[in-house]
Amino acid sequence: MTFTRIHGGRIIDPAHQVDRIDDLWIQDRRILGVGPRPPGAPERADVELDATGLIVCPGLIDVHVHLREPGDEASETIASGAASALAGGVTTIAAMPNTTPPIDSQGAAEFVVLQGRRAARAHVLPVGAVSKGREGRELAELGRLVEGGAVAFTDDGSPVSSAELMRRALEYANLFDLAIMQHCQVMELTEGAVMNEGFESARLGLRGMPPAAEDIMVARDIRLAEITGGRLHIQHISTARAVELVREGKRRGVRVTAEACPHHFTLTDEKLRTFDTVYKMNPPLRTAEDVEAVIEGLIDGTIDLLATDHAPHSQEKKSQAIDVAPFGVIGLETLLPVSATALVKTERLTWPQLLGKLTEQPARLLNLTDKGHFGVGADADVTLFDPETVWTIDVNTFQSRSRNCPFHGWEVIGRVETVLVEGAIRYQRPTT
Ligand SMILES: NC(=O)N[C@@H](CC(=O)O)C(=O)O
Ligand SMILES: [Zn+2]
Ligand SMILES: [Zn+2]
């Protein structure tokens, strides 16, 4: 038996409304308690960690991560993505199924689980495809995917365009109490587009995606969730109108949740003036009004949680012309600092509010009852970070195999120091 005590830190456990300087006790792989020495624990723990000046919180959970294995291991592998997660303080990641081949069968889901275990970095949980081959025609075998370890379903990379298929997916996934995560985009409205449609796209002469392409599908799917009683999760929400639609859906009692990505509440489409493909992602960067609406959605709880949409692409692919380069940015190693700098430093959210959207809420979405909190017996996945020190993001230090990060050179707060997974230290910030 190994006892670990993390002492002197500010413990923030949003699920239990804990925010105080105290000790966190761990026995082997599980949380033993917060506070004085629990019965059964020795006078001196086997491992003593000094967390003075640091915040100690449940390991972060990212429900939206693209690993490129199988199919494009030059951009990311399951192991490199899981290492990138740990360096960002993220102890659990949900892997999107848009690999080659896609994760649309029990065997494919089991492969992701196995490679995640082999890597022994962050926990890796597969998200199964909604449709066979992600082709949007026939429902995948959702029951088999659950057997293989799937924690939700999505065709992300593409939307489920067919309303009929979406309706059945919501109904079927509900039998397992799992969510359908939807990439909301009406494809007919976005053909050939590379950025947001508006003043900036007109000025640059680039084809744009109208915000309505997102809004229309959000509206449709909220209605489908309402009539089926199924669980709908809106991925990477980016428009003011979509935020309003989710707010109104929740008010009516529809089972809808939403996530926002750091780039959508920190950057606008003006960035495309550089023609730099690092600002090309889907959904695209929108306007300042959309950014403000996303932040307001985070503040009032309309947007439940944060996720990265970590979308690694090799230099080779991203260095192509803006109209041919792939969509996507990486995010695991900047999630906490960029969110903290944009939302906590500016006093839009408190630390416990921000951390709730990175721990408690994502755990709920995926039904991970033993994660995202410090209750007795919970998995001892713990992140220790420095909330004060200002530091500079440098992509050259990243664990990810890709470098398509729009935050290189940013001055930020929130630096991850130590990460424990199931009670063991699996990441320590290099000091040189
Ligand atoms: N977000 C992106 O711009 N790209 C994602 C796909 C997706 O999330 O839809 C990718 O897989 O590269
Ligand atoms: Zn998507
Ligand atoms: Zn995605």
TrEMBL record:
Its cofactor is Zn(2+). The active site is at D309. It is an enzyme of class 3 (hydrolase). Keywords: Hydrolase, Metal-binding, Pyrimidine biosynthesis, Zinc. One of its GO terms (cellular component) is cytoplasm. Pfam families: DHOase (PF12890). Binds 2 Zn(2+) ions per subunit. The keyword Hydrolase applies. Substrate binds at H66, L67, R68, N98, N282, H313, F327, G328. The keyword Thylakoid does not apply. One of its GO terms (biological process) is 'de novo' UMP biosynthetic process. Pathway: Pyrimidine metabolism; UMP biosynthesis via de novo pathway; (S)-dihydroorotate from bicarbonate: step 3/3. It catalyses: (S)-dihydroorotate + H2O = N-carbamoyl-L-aspartate + H(+). Zn(2+) 1 binds at H64, H66, D156, D309. Its EC number is 3.5.2.3. Residues 55-239 form the Dihydroorotase catalytic domain. GO terms for molecular function: allantoinase activity; dihydroorotase activity; zinc ion binding. Zn(2+) 2 binds at D156, H183, H236. Catalyzes the reversible cyclization of carbamoyl aspartate to dihydroorotate. PANTHER family: ALLANTOINASE. Belongs to the metallo-dependent hydrolases superfamily. DHOase family. Class I DHOase subfamily. This is Dihydroorotase. It comes from Isosphaera pallida (strain ATCC 43644 / DSM 9630 / IS1B). The lineage of its organism: Bacteria, Pseudomonadati, Planctomycetota, Planctomycetia, Isosphaerales.
